[in-house]
Amino acid sequence: MKKLLALSVLIALAGCAEKKPLTPEEQWQGYCRSVGNAARTIMLDRQNAIPKAQAVEHASKIEDETTKKFIISIIDEVYALPEASIKGDVEASREKIRSEFTEKCIATPHDQMPDYKPF
User: Fold this and answer.
1) Which long-range contacts (CB under 8 A, 24 or more apart) does 46-51 make?
2) Which of 13, 19, 22, 67 is the most exposed place for a label (fewest CB within 10 A)?
3) From which domain of life does this come (predicted)?
4) Nearest 5 degrees, angle CA 49-CA 47-CA 68?
5) What are the residue ranges spanned by the domains of the chain?
Protein backbone atom coordinates (compact mmCIF):
# COMPACT_ATOMS: atom_id res chain seq x y z
CA MET A 1 0.00 0.00 0.00
CA LYS A 2 2.86 2.38 0.81
CA LYS A 3 4.45 1.64 -2.57
CA LEU A 4 1.18 2.47 -4.33
CA LEU A 5 0.91 5.72 -2.40
CA ALA A 6 4.52 6.65 -3.19
CA LEU A 7 3.99 5.82 -6.87
CA SER A 8 0.85 7.94 -7.07
CA VAL A 9 2.66 10.87 -5.41
CA LEU A 10 5.49 10.54 -7.94
CA ILE A 11 3.03 10.52 -10.84
CA ALA A 12 1.25 13.57 -9.44
CA LEU A 13 4.53 15.45 -9.05
CA ALA A 14 5.61 14.54 -12.56
CA GLY A 15 2.36 16.02 -13.86
CA CYS A 16 3.07 19.26 -12.03
CA ALA A 17 6.60 19.57 -13.39
CA GLU A 18 7.50 22.73 -15.24
CA LYS A 19 6.62 22.85 -18.89
CA LYS A 20 9.44 23.37 -21.33
CA PRO A 21 9.79 27.00 -22.37
CA LEU A 22 8.24 27.86 -25.70
CA THR A 23 10.51 28.48 -28.65
CA PRO A 24 10.29 31.94 -30.26
CA GLU A 25 8.39 30.38 -33.17
CA GLU A 26 5.85 28.79 -30.79
CA GLN A 27 5.47 32.13 -29.00
CA TRP A 28 4.87 33.89 -32.33
CA GLN A 29 2.26 31.31 -33.33
CA GLY A 30 0.50 31.86 -30.00
CA TYR A 31 0.56 35.61 -30.61
CA CYS A 32 -0.85 35.07 -34.11
CA ARG A 33 -3.69 32.95 -32.71
CA SER A 34 -4.52 35.92 -30.48
CA VAL A 35 -4.46 38.25 -33.50
CA GLY A 36 -6.83 35.90 -35.32
CA ASN A 37 -9.15 35.80 -32.32
CA ALA A 38 -9.09 39.60 -32.21
CA ALA A 39 -10.05 39.66 -35.91
CA ARG A 40 -12.99 37.40 -35.15
CA THR A 41 -14.11 39.71 -32.35
CA ILE A 42 -13.78 42.77 -34.59
CA MET A 43 -15.96 41.02 -37.18
CA LEU A 44 -18.51 40.26 -34.45
CA ASP A 45 -18.50 43.95 -33.48
CA ARG A 46 -19.06 44.93 -37.12
CA GLN A 47 -21.91 42.45 -37.42
CA ASN A 48 -23.42 43.98 -34.27
CA ALA A 49 -23.29 47.49 -35.78
CA ILE A 50 -20.44 48.86 -33.66
CA PRO A 51 -19.25 51.98 -35.54
CA LYS A 52 -15.76 51.95 -37.07
CA ALA A 53 -14.86 55.14 -35.17
CA GLN A 54 -15.56 53.39 -31.89
CA ALA A 55 -13.42 50.40 -32.90
CA VAL A 56 -10.53 52.67 -33.96
CA GLU A 57 -10.83 54.65 -30.73
CA HIS A 58 -10.58 51.44 -28.71
CA ALA A 59 -7.64 50.18 -30.80
CA SER A 60 -5.75 53.46 -30.36
CA LYS A 61 -5.40 52.62 -26.65
CA ILE A 62 -3.17 49.63 -27.45
CA GLU A 63 0.37 50.41 -26.35
CA ASP A 64 2.31 47.79 -28.33
CA GLU A 65 2.96 49.14 -31.84
CA THR A 66 3.06 45.74 -33.58
CA THR A 67 -0.28 44.75 -32.12
CA LYS A 68 -1.79 48.16 -32.84
CA LYS A 69 -0.77 47.90 -36.53
CA PHE A 70 -2.34 44.45 -36.81
CA ILE A 71 -5.56 45.57 -35.13
CA ILE A 72 -5.90 48.76 -37.20
CA SER A 73 -5.37 46.78 -40.42
CA ILE A 74 -8.01 44.27 -39.30
CA ILE A 75 -10.47 47.07 -38.55
CA ASP A 76 -9.82 48.69 -41.94
CA GLU A 77 -10.33 45.42 -43.80
CA VAL A 78 -13.37 44.26 -41.84
CA TYR A 79 -15.15 47.61 -42.11
CA ALA A 80 -14.40 47.78 -45.86
CA LEU A 81 -16.35 44.55 -46.48
CA PRO A 82 -19.86 44.98 -47.89
CA GLU A 83 -22.49 44.52 -45.23
CA ALA A 84 -24.30 41.85 -47.25
CA SER A 85 -21.18 39.64 -47.26
CA ILE A 86 -20.82 39.70 -43.48
CA LYS A 87 -24.48 39.17 -42.66
CA GLY A 88 -25.10 36.10 -44.85
CA ASP A 89 -23.49 33.34 -42.81
CA VAL A 90 -22.27 35.24 -39.77
CA GLU A 91 -20.38 32.37 -38.17
CA ALA A 92 -18.58 31.49 -41.41
CA SER A 93 -17.63 35.16 -41.89
CA ARG A 94 -16.07 35.29 -38.43
CA GLU A 95 -14.18 32.05 -38.91
CA LYS A 96 -12.92 33.13 -42.33
CA ILE A 97 -11.55 36.44 -41.03
CA ARG A 98 -10.01 34.71 -37.99
CA SER A 99 -8.11 32.18 -40.08
CA GLU A 100 -7.15 34.77 -42.70
CA PHE A 101 -5.53 37.09 -40.17
CA THR A 102 -3.92 34.25 -38.23
CA GLU A 103 -2.20 33.15 -41.46
CA LYS A 104 -1.23 36.73 -42.39
CA CYS A 105 0.33 37.17 -38.96
CA ILE A 106 2.26 33.89 -39.13
CA ALA A 107 3.64 34.91 -42.54
CA THR A 108 4.75 38.31 -41.22
CA PRO A 109 8.49 38.59 -40.52
CA HIS A 110 9.30 39.54 -36.93
CA ASP A 111 12.43 40.15 -34.90
CA GLN A 112 10.93 40.42 -31.42
CA MET A 113 7.85 39.31 -29.55
CA PRO A 114 5.19 41.96 -29.05
CA ASP A 115 4.04 42.73 -25.53
CA TYR A 116 0.47 41.45 -25.56
CA LYS A 117 -2.22 39.85 -23.46
CA PRO A 118 -3.52 36.60 -24.96
CA PHE A 119 -7.06 36.95 -26.30
Assistant:
1) 46/78, 46/79, 46/81, 46/86, 47/86, 47/87, 47/90, 47/93, 47/94
2) 19
3) Bacteria
4) 85
5) 20-107
